[in-house]
């Protein structure tokens, strides 16, 4: 075959450069095939790149800003290629780096306060450091342990997402790196890294800093080394978060992201994906952090201040919308408070449930459900609140939702009106001169109503309350039953297999596998596709081959 004939084999451009008597690193970096040759473990190339002088120059491309008048190659191509060479994970090159103090100093000079931190180079710095964490964990951690100022400098730069990712892995909140290096994390016990991160809520006004600080703390709650787990779930740390969150002069983003951390403490699986949970079950590093009863009690101390923020009567800001205007808009901070209340109800704390009842937190949340009929994020959380109360073991919660909150009466009144009220003192005001829009929470009200009926079959308190309301009985018979029939997709005559009538709505995978496709119709459609040239000749030829 022709590729066995030496006369037809083409020399690599990289080898051509290496054959020269005098060549530079820049010539190699300018060659498009250098990364491919690195991955192919080109011996001559690797022996050249492993030299300290070359590693140092590669690092300078990664961490040093270029002058404004520099060529594009120096500004963009060389830093990118240098970063890619490190992330090829060639052991001898990485060893040259981690075993030389001066080179490590050069790498981490990027995080010094007087150093410029462009987004581009921050990403390259992050990739190189994370590569070292994966392949040279012990030497890297030893270096950081000997230079504790690096942790402080990284915390100061958590507004940069790439640096935040480095910090997450550095403190052990990433299960892919430290499952076999628990001993290297012991030094974290003597640092106040969590406190430094939490204090960013107070010392910075940047929403990016607040979001990234919360992301790190949430990552710790999901996969924390033992040295940090006890700290983040302590009542003193939670009190520190609420102190920052409820400080009047602070931006609302502080409250939003502080509550995100508390929510993650109460329900650490909430933000974790299914694939993440499947992976966690196979590793031994870290544990999901759960809030102790003392921690929950500490959160409840600030509940009254949080509920004050749900009062919209004094707010003056206005948000115009397509259906009218919001006076005021709900805002992320109020939405996050309602979510926090929703999660509090799931922890099974009788003290928390009693406080939520006595301070009318549940009632206020349900009121917001009807005051903001177009905020589906709010409706989702309030529906969870109602369902948690109805499914709970405490009769007091059920009676509170049915009586004090009057959920049945509110559903009947809202469904009867069905459109936005033109004469309303609420925060949602319709546009003048236009027909009021249909309210947007009917679907959630229908699901809540169906849940009431379902639970009423096994709960005498709910059953008695519903049967004692003649308006509800009439609405259930005339409206709800018909609505459920219309919304039952398994009865739609639009080609959906009727054999799936009894299947759950969430069984998408099984649904896909069991569908009875019309093979004749599919063949006819395929024939028409070829007839009218929808597929190219190449596609047709490929089909024939297969």
TrEMBL record:
Residues 421-440 are annotated as: Disordered. SUPFAM superfamilies: ARM repeat. InterPro entries: ARM-type_fold, SAPS. GO terms for molecular function: protein phosphatase binding; protein phosphatase regulator activity. Belongs to the SAPS family. This is Serine/threonine-protein phosphatase 6 regulatory subunit. It comes from Triticum turgidum subsp. durum.
């Amino acid at each position: 075959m022709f590729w066995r004939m030496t006369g037809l084999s083409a020399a690599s451009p990289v080898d051509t450069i290496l054959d020269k008597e005098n060549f530079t690193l820049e010539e190699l970096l300018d060659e498009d095939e250098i990364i491919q040759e690195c991955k192919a473990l080109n011996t001559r190339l690797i022996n050249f790149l492993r030299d300290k002088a070359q590693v140092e120059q590669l690092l300078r491309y990664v961490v040093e800003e270029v002058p404004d008048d520099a060529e594009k190659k120096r500004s963009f191509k060389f830093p990118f290629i240098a970063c890619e060479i490190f992330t090829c994970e060639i052991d001898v090159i990485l060893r040259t780096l981690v075993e030389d103090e001066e080179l490590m100093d050069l790498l981490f000079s990027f995080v010094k306060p007087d150093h410029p931190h462009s987004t581009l180079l921050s990403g390259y710095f992050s990739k190189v450091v994370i590569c070292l964490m994966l392949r040279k964990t012990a030497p890297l951690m030893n270096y950081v342990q000997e230079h504790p100022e690096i942790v402080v400098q990284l915390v100061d730069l958590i507004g940069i997402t790439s640096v935040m990712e480095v910090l997450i892995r550095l403190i052990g909140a990433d299960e892919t790196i430290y499952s076999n290096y628990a001993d290297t994390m012991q030094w974290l016990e003597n640092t106040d890294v969590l406190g430094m991160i939490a204090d960013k809520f107070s010392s910075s006004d940047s929403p990016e800093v607040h979001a990234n600080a919360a992301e790190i703390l949430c990552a710790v709650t999901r996969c924390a080394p033992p040295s940090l787990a006890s700290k983040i779930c302590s009542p003193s740390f939670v009190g520190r978060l609420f102190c920052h969150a409820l400080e009047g002069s602070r931006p609302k983003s502080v409250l939003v992201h502080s509550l995100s951390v508390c929510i993650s403490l109460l329900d650490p699986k909430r933000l974790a994906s299914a694939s993440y949970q499947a992976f966690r079950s196979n590793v031994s590093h870290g544990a999901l952090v759960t809030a102790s009863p003392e921690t929950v009690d500490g959160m409840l101390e600030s509940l009254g201040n949080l509920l004050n923020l749900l009062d919209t009567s004094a707010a003056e800001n206005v948000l115009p919308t397509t259906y009218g205007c919001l006076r005021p808009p709900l805002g992320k901070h109020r939405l996050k408070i309602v979510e926090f209340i929703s999660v509090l109800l799931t922890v099974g704390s009788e003290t928390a449930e009693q406080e939520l009842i006595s301070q009318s937190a549940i009632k206020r949340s349900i009121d917001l459900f009807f005051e903001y009929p177009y905020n589906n994020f709010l409706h989702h959380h309030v529906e969870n609140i109602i369902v948690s109360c109805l499914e709970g073991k405490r009769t007091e919660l059920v009676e509170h939702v049915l009586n004090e909150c009057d959920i049945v009466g509110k559903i009947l009144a809202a469904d009867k009106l069905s459109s936005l009220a033109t004469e309303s003192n609420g925060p949602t005001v319709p546009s003048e001169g236009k027909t009021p829009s249909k309210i947007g929470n009917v679907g959630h009200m229908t699901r809540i109503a169906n849940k009431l009926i379902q639970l009423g079959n096994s709960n005498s308190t709910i059953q008695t309350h519903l049967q004692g309301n003649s308006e509800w009985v009439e609405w259930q018979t005339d409206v709800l039953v018909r609505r459920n029939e219309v919304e039952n997709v398994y009865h739609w005559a639009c080609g959906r297999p009727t054999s799936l009538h009894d299947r759950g709505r969430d069984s998408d995978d099984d649904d896909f596998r069991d569908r009875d496709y019309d093979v004749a119709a599919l063949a006819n459609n395929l024939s028409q596709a070829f007839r009218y040239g929808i597929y190219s000749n190449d596609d047709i030829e490929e089909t024939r081959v297969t």
